[in-house]
Amino acid sequence: MVATAPPAAVRKRRRKHRESDTPTVGRSRFGTAAANAGGVLFAIVMFFPVYWIINTAFKPAPEILQFEPTFFPHTFTMDNFKSAFNAPFFQQDLLNGVIITCGAVVGALLVGFLAALAIARFQFYGRKAIILVVLSVQMVPFVAVLIPLFLMLQRFNLTNSLLGITLVYVGLILPYTVWTLRGFISAIPRELDEAASIDGASRFQVFWKIILPLTGPGLVATSVYGFIQAWNEFIIINTLNDQAHQNLMAWLLQNQTSRGTFWGPLMAGSILTALPVVIFFLIVQRNIATGLTAGAVKG
Q: Which residues pair with 197 in a beta bridge?
């Protein structure tokens, strides 16, 4: 007796019947329109501060300070950008920010990756406690650790230096890096390690040729987070370092004086300060999407 497959039309009707039984949300026109309106409103609210910064940066000072605000500059000017770029300590703080941020990101990735590898691949006493500590450290507010950080740096003569603040930022980024990379490494099947070992690969070759390439998207995603954290940090560096050893976030504070706020250079400086983060994000955006969705690895 030969079994015959059910006609395609019957299978199609059954599939359609199951889909109609599935409860759905937001399928009505009113629901779709409300969701779209909410999305547009949210986008406007989020984008308006950015638009106002750009709008103010291209206005001359009299137009910025006039009583009635204008939504478009009547006279475009680049003087605010020239003033910000040539202001005291701007270029110095820009260089400081690049050095501190790159050093912190590279240091956090090196230490964090090895730590995540040990937690994900090896069984040792206190492993779960370490994971819990790493998660708990992320919940501590920055302000609570300022005084201990200052005393620790002072003991090693690292106060008011780029090396000291870089090490602080490494500690700041490290918990998130370890926690995130641990998930990526855990998702890599151990069978790949075992297969490579059977083929004669050493532990270093397994690490270098299998684990490291498969963790690449995770490294990119965590590096972006670390870059944004280190570049935009303000409280710690403004408290521990003087003006010559700060970053651009602390420099922006110079535009607020007892005589008032220089809104034009402040807004222009804000745009110049945000440009490195935007450029870095545009360079690695493809890998970010891959890294954020890479949970189940690719065996």
A: none
